[in-house]
């Protein structure tokens, strides 16, 4: 094998992993922090040199961020008296602006041309995931606010990264983009009502306050992004190029802040919460896939619906949890969702990419639509 920077990074990552395992076996896991962080950091760089695993780079980076936040939570708590949690809302607004600026009228034409598939996808998102979340939250003995956070995650709209993984899975990218746009625009009005119905037994839900907060962090930034796209698209190329990177950095920082804030709760119930979030995610893929088949759609459509259903906008959930003033509890499920969702969607996309699909819908490159 030719020695490259990526193979060197892989060697360093494996060495750091061996040291971590050694320290763990000798009951010195606390001292293993720097080595575990190094393992994920170098591995994230290493996999970029291997086409089969390149899609996992961001997920592994998030794992490095999560590890850093768990070992050194003070780094993401405050800086010179400034609480970093204050950044969550503007970061979400920037990401939503990026989503709006990446869309145009052509992305909504799909809604009128193929309404059945879009309606099926939107209905799947706002029925399957909330119901699964409610069942899971009610089945495990979590604290009330943690349970409410699981339900909040279930009521969220489709993740903005769904179109990227649909592209990799040879699914209907245009459909995924439309489902993401519609569910995100409907979320400020649908999500608070679902939360009142499903999570009202766990915590008090102020529907109007939540609705107004979501309008501020979803509708207004997306409309601003759409206006930017219409009037200035291509005239500020540096901004067009920067938005995907800014969005990824924003997601990473949000995850770090949430994990740091909820570190104690996560360490107490961590494995169980990870399992529940993983189960919620995988069941979303499964039921989304069969829901699409139930309505007689073609395979590329129900692949897109499966991915769109299983992938929740965890960043938006974090912003809502911040508005509620419960980022360390209600926001915890969304904090651990990112790495899990990135891993499972990568695996599913890899599987489907090697399996021939039916359907003739033209694929679009997500690079033009993903922010």
Give a description of the structure.
The protein is mainly α and 371 residues long. It has two domains: 1-80, no CATH class; 82-368, Na+/H+ antiporter like fold. The protein contains 15 helices and two strands. The protein has helices at 5-25, 33-46, 57-71, 88-101, 105-113, 115-139, 144-154, 162-168, 173-199, 207-232, 237-261, 263-294, 299-310, 314-324, 332-353; strands spanning 78-79, 82-83. The chain has a two-stranded antiparallel sheet with strand order 1-2. The radius of gyration is 20 Å and the shape is globular. The model is unreliable at 359-371 (pLDDT under 50).
Features:
371 residues; mainly alpha; Na+/H+ antiporter like fold; 2 domains; two-stranded antiparallel ribbon; 15 helices; 2 strands; globular; disordered C terminus
